[in-house]
Each structure stands twice: as C-alpha cells, then as structure tokens.
Design goal:
Strand content: 5-15%
Number of strands: 9
Order of helices and strands: HHEHEEHHHEEEEEE
Strand order of the largest sheet: 1-4-7-3-2
Structural class: alpha+beta
Largest sheet: 5 strands, mixed
Number of helices: 6
Helix content: 25-40%
Shape: globular
C-alpha cells in the first residue's frame, strides 16, 4: 500500500505540475497574444499618424490655391535682346523686380514708421518677364540723357500704355549692376519709408509712385536700359562730385502700366488674400507666391 500510495502521490504531483505548466502555457499564450495585439496597435497607430501627417502636409501645400490650381516652381529667364545691356544685368534687374513683388505677395513687405507691420499678402500678383520691345523703348528714352520731362505713363504708338521708372546714377563701369539694383531697391522701399494709406483704395502719391509701379499686380512685363551720359543742366553739373559730369541714366518700362487711378471708384494696387488664390488661368509658384503666365514660365529643370 505504501508503494502504491507513493506512486499515486507522484502521479498526483505530476498531474498538478502538468496542470500548472498548462496554465503557464495558457498565460504565456495570452501574454504573447497581448504582445502581438500591442504590436498591431502600435503599428496601426503609426500608420494612422503617418496618413494624418501626409494628409495635413498635402492640405498645407494646397491650401493657398484651389484644388485645380496648377503649381510650378519657376525662374523667369531672360533671353538677351541684343541691345546694350548684358544678359547678366538683364537677369539681375528682372530678379530684383520679382523679389520685391514676391515679398508683397507673401505678406513679407515690411512697413516702417511707428506702427510697423507688413503689407497684406496678395492673391494674384503676377511674376514679371523681360520684354525686348520694352527694353528698346527704354533705350530710346534713356538715350536723350534728360529725364527732366517726367514721363510715368506713356501712350505708345500701338495704343497701349507703358509705365516708367527712371533715375540718374553715378558709378564705375565695373559696378553698374550693383548700382542699378540699389536704385531699384530704393524705389521699391518707398512704401516702407513713407507708408501707404490703403492698397485696396489707393490714391496716387508721388513719394511712392515708383514702388506702386513695381508692385502693381497686373503688370507682367518689364524692359530696362542704361545710358552713359555727359550733360549739364542750367549750367550746373548733375553730380557736383564728378569733375567731368559723367553719369548714367537708367530707365525701366512696364506693361500693362500701373498707377492708373479711377476717380469714380476705389483703385486697388493688388487684390489682398492668400497667395495664388486668384491666379485664374496662370500657374502658381508657391516658392514666390507669384502667378506665372505662360510666356513667363520657364522651368528651372
């Protein structure tokens, strides 16, 4: 009986141990299952988060424009017109104009004065392109070496109005590019210096007339020229610091012209809003905030 009992005890012990092991295996399986579910949950959460971020990023990129708006990344490249300006200077002048316009379009044009702040962003600011006909007209104007006859808007023989910005300057021949870019920058900063009442109900102000032409929304083309001159006005040198009164004239022509004000209704320099929102048929360049018209659009690729 003792041996049988002993055997029975051992069998019972084995059964108990076997039961515990089975329970342990079940616990392990449950644990492994929970771990598996945990991994699935983590992976699913990561995928969901990735999709949400992807959707948010796509929305961010597309938010400035309608969903059907064509987007491009462009640089307006200049084809040398064969006049006096080098292709390098042409490109620099065009880029400077578009740089100023881009600041306005993106709401980054800083206002000076006590209040500070920025001009409101523009929803359909055109990217300018270089025009050889305008360069030729600018060259004709500059060749007179006399800007005393102020011409800000000119009715050309084709019946279309041209806008104009022009100035005298002195510099060494090797520094002409930097000098003309400085002149354009200073014209573009007139609103920062003197302020503006409203861009949606603008009034002509000669203190900021150059700047208004540069940022006039509908202007799409520009052409400029530089002329070497030597001229006395009223027996006095234009630049007293130059012994031989050598100076240069810079003229830029614009089309369509800016600075056309309607006395009967408000005149907007540009439409305020999200950059590119109202580019209409033009493509939108999100890197500059400008609307790229077909003859302006030359891909960087």
């Amino acid at each position: 009986m003792t041996e049988t009992r002993k055997y029975a005890d051992e069998e019972e012990t084995e059964n108990v141990l076997r039961g515990k092991n089975e329970e342990k295996e079940k616990v392990t399986q449950i644990s492994n299952g929970a771990s598996y579910l945990k991994h699935i949950l983590i992976i699913s959460t990561a995928v969901l988060l990735t999709l949400q971020l992807s959707t948010w990023y796509s929305t961010l990129l597309s938010s400035p424009t309608k969903s059907t708006q064509k987007m491009v990344s462009t640089k307006s490249l200049v084809k040398n017109c064969g006049f006096r300006l080098s292709g390098e200077i042409q490109q620099a002048i065009l880029d400077k104009h578009n740089e100023i316009r881009s600041k306005v379009a993106m709401g980054e044009y800083s206002l000076g004065g006590k209040n500070g702040g920025f001009l409101p962003a523009a929803s359909s600011m055109s990217k300018m392109s270089w025009d050889c006909d305008l360069e030729a007209e600018a060259q004709d104007r500059a060749s007179s070496c006399d800007l005393s006859k102020r011409v800000e808007i000119e009715n050309h023989q084709d019946g279309n109005l041209r806008g104009e910005n022009a100035f005298y300057f002195q510099t060494e021949d090797s520094d002409v590019k930097n000098a003309i870019l400085k002149g354009i920058s200073e014209m573009g900063q007139e609103i920062e210096k003197f302020g503006i009442g409203s861009v949606s109900d603008a009034k002509y102000d000669k203190r900021i007339g150059h700047a208004m032409q540069i940022i006039w929304e509908s202007t799409q083309k520009v052409g400029c020229a530089i002329q070497e001159c030597s001229l006395k006005r009223g027996g006095r040198k234009l630049f007293e610091t130059a012994a031989d009164s050598q100076f240069k004239v810079a003229v830029c022509k614009y089309y369509p012209t800016g600075n056309i004000f309607n006395s009967q209704k408000p005149t907007a320099i540009y439409q305020q809003g999200i950059p590119g929102e109202n580019c209409a048929e033009a493509a939108f360049d999100p890197t500059t905030g400008l609307c790229v018209h077909e003859d302006t659009k030359i891909s960087e690729k």
